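Question (not urgent): is this output format expected?
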Amino acid sequence: MEYRLLGGSGLKVSALSFGAATFGGTNDFFKPWGSTEVDEARRLIDVCVDAGVNLFDTANGYSDGRSEEVLGKAVEGRRDKVLISTKSGFPTGPGPNDEGSSRYHLRNALEASLRRLGTDYVDIYHLHAFDALTPIEEVQDTLNKFVREGKIRYIAASNFSGWHLMKSLAVADRYGYTRFVAHQVYYSLIGREYEWELMPLALDQKVGALVWSPLGWGRLTGKIRRGQPMPEGIRYPQTKAAAPQVPDEHLFNVIDAMDKIAAENGKSITQIALNWLLQRPTVSSVIVGARNEEQLRQNLGAIGWSLTPEQIAALDKATELEPIYPYWHQRKTFSRRNPLPV
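Got this back:
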């Protein structure tokens, strides 16, 4: 396993990490992802630890907190050997203060996560989304207090816009608060918007990317093919409404390019998608999920080798889309003063 620094911090995380969104499966949204319970979760974590994976990611919003409970029980007896990442911000109840990043909600959410996880600290604590109603000073002060109390070790954002992240960092710098060292982001061969603004910001501010849904909401597994019916047993048809839209022809063109490179390397489509991400700037870790041991071992096979520069260039060309304004303008008219990070 390869280990990388988490952004500008001194914490080393495995290049591949495990996402526990498949644990629990207690509601209609997460059931298609998986319903892994404690015994199977413990086995999957055994496989991860044996492979050198040290980071396990969950959230209080995954299956109404059941994911945290399962993960906590599955790592009993080896808490000091693993890193746990969790998140807050999404609704946890019907009340007016049961969501967001207010001091009130963050305190309640963290204490509840610690109880479910069966631990007295979280290694990486994410804001699951930006809260535009709570003053950033209140948010950053609260997170800073959690760090000083020893209840969290590092703080991170997730799904922020560029200005959300930059303003949060500026507030932290102004008052001497703990800074975000990571940003959990959607990034894949069919979702490269991260490169437009968030990646340059991350390079400038030393914010490591933790990549979620690296297989493009299950569309880059090799199971979805041009001219073939949707196979049974995959979750994408059930989660399609929530997924970012990608034109079918573009998706199939990307898969065609991946097929060629997979054949050249003797690897699977999944492994090509993950390995491409591992070569990108700012990426500290790519979060992989699995409903069973076979899927997990397939994902872990993405590490320990590298695509060639020519293969990366071919994938870049096959997957590139015209960016939205102002990024297309910056690239076309002033590119010598705004070099691309990739």
